[in-house]
Amino acid sequence: MLGRDKICAVVAASGAPSMRRQLRQALRQTRAVELRLDWLSDDAEIARFLKQLKPARPRPHLIATCRRREAGGRYRGTVAQQLVHLAEAIRAGCSWYDLDIETIRKCPPELLEVLLGEGRQLASAHFFRRMRADLPRVAAELRRGRPDAIKIAARCDSLADAVKLLRFARTQRNVIAVPMGEVALPARFLALREKNGFAYAPVESATAPGQISLEEMYGVYRAKGFNKKTRVYGVIGDPIGHSLSPAMQNAGFAARRINAVYLPFLVRDLKDFLDAAGPLGIRGFSVTLPHKERIVDLLDDCDPLAARIGAVNTVVARGGGKLYGYNTDYVGVLRALERRMPLRGSRVLIVGAGGVARAVAFALAQAGSSVCVCARRPAKAKSLARALEGEAVPWSELRRQFFDAIVNATPVGMHPHVQESPLDARELNCRLVFDTIYRPRVTRLLQLAARRGIDTVSGVEMFVAQGTAQWEIWTGARAPVDAMRRAVLSALAREEKRSGTKQTPKGKRAKR
Fold first, then answer.
1. What's the rounded mean pLDDT across residues 228-235?
2. What's the rounded Cα separation, in Å, for the pair 60 and 2?
3. How far, in Å, CA of 181 to CA of 47, rounded?
4. Are 423 and 447 in contact (CB under 8 A)?
5. Full set of structural domains in the chain with CATH
């Protein structure tokens, strides 16, 4: 629609100075920019911003948007005032204006031609509550005024809805499809592979649900280079926003100059994701909580070791869309611990009995360790211990027993619940504590261990090891381990800097 620019930066702020600063920042990355005039505090601030708008050279593609509250925007004025601001924006240098369907219904085409005839019209419809079933009817209504292009943005609570919206746009001319919502976030990226692909990315403030910042679009995901040949991978989980897998895996693709992208998928319904994997062209994906055990029965086949563990964290799409599962958590555990302690003959306590715990337990048992299991659900702990000829240890016994190492394989203490610990200090009777959680890098559990003089291992080591093993399974190439580790450590350092501390706050032991 806007030449070669498929990523449109969104500039939105309450004050004119902030809008100008964001605009300058946006133009360093893209020549397509949406100016959200409706975010400015009042009519005077809109006029102030437009008066000082001086488009750079070469002239960028600026889209003026002044969406009223009725249409999901912030502008409180009348339709007449809205049109006046859009006309002023065209005169100030904007080449496009976004006109919502609610305003189009109230304005004769002749009036729009008189006021806004010098600009190009993007007729838009936004559905913030749910996906519309009658997309052809919506498109037909938007086309009545003969706009230069149309946009349909709809909340998609499933990937099936997102696929439907993208498929519809693929069959139309000059249609921009914008899937909204957390579940549909990856579809925003994948839309860029289409001929009419277009995506909005805020410079600072998100203006619609499921948006990714301009910085991440270009930096983490390298979205500018998306095309039909871009290979798609991802990570599925619930929640998923905390994951640093995209930073790590995309750094690997960048280092090896591979045309591929790795995206985060918020998955609450496994069947919805698996049904969409083929249409979205997903070649492989990571699996995290809570799906590692549940997904095993939904795959076409599984690596014997993963089947024995009963949990999968890596899936490859093979010929005919067949899905094959692996478990690289196993590799991550061994690489994280074997350099820190002799595993054969050691007595190791695993806290937890879920998918991660099973991978840890099988890895340690295979390495010759004596495995003990303690979990909130004693029955699951006994079942896992029995499968390994290990020992189930009741929580009440922890203060009276000693272990060579204790491994936390639960999500307790994971961001954002950084104040929690699965164990208290008096239960840490061991030489080494390993927390499989990597965010934060120094968990509350590791802090308690360090204060007692106990050696610690961060989950970062396991995370990088299992992630690089996944990368190699998908690509068949040797992973750029150093680049991938640097990406993870840099992301964690930025997070620590934002929080103003390198240590997590004092916390409490989690309820059992």
1. 96
2. 9
3. 32
4. no
5. 7-212 (3.20.20.70), 337-464+501-509 (3.40.50.720)
Q: Give mean pLDDT, residues 343-352.
A: 98
Q: What is the mean pLDDT of residues 319-348?
A: 95
Per this entry, what is the length of the chain?
A: 512
Distances in Å between the Cα of 315 and the Cα atoms of 276, 335, 457 are: 15, 21, 27
List residues with catalytic annotation. 292
Contact 300, 323 (CB under 8 A): yes
**105 φ, ψ to 5°?**
-65, -20
Residue 512 has pLDDT above 70, yes or no: no
pLDDT of residue 511: 47
Across 221-256, b (16+ Cβ under 10 Å) vs e yields bbbeebeeebbbbbbbbbbbebbbbbbbbbbbbbbe
Q: What is the pLDDT of residue 307?
A: 95
* Torsion, Cα of 415, 416, 422, 423 (10° steps): 90
Q: Which of 64, 77, 71 is nearest to 23 (CA)?
A: 64
Backbone angles phi, psi at 239, to 5 degrees: -80, 170
CA-to-CA distance for 214 and 72, rounded, in angstroms? 22
How many Cβ atoms sit within 10 Å of the Cβ of residue 62? 27
Check whether 50 has a pLDDT greater than 90.
yes
pLDDT (average), residues 485-505 = 79
* 3-class DSSP assignment, residue 389: coil
Cα–Cα distance for residue pair 335/465, rounded to 1 Å: 7
Q: Can you give the pLDDT at residue 506?
A: 44
User: How far apart are the C-alpha atoms of 96 and 59, rounded to whole Å?
Assistant: 12
Mean pLDDT of all residues in 178-201: 90
Least confident of 217-231, 273-287, 300-314, 487-501: 487-501
Bridge partners, 202 (sequence order)? 10
Q: What is the SS3 assignment for 405?
A: strand
Q: Which residues contact 494 (CB under 8 A, 6 or more apart)?
A: none
Q: Are 374 and 342 in contact (CB under 8 A)?
A: no
What pLDDT does 210 receive? 85
Q: Are 92 and 124 in contact (CB under 8 A)?
A: no
Q: Is the pLDDT of residue 507 over 90?
A: no
Residue 135 to residues 144, 156, 184, 352, Cα–Cα distance (Å)? 15, 13, 17, 47
- Residue 425 tokens, joined: 């200090």
Report the pLDDT value the prediction gives residue 233, as an integer from 0 to 100: 98
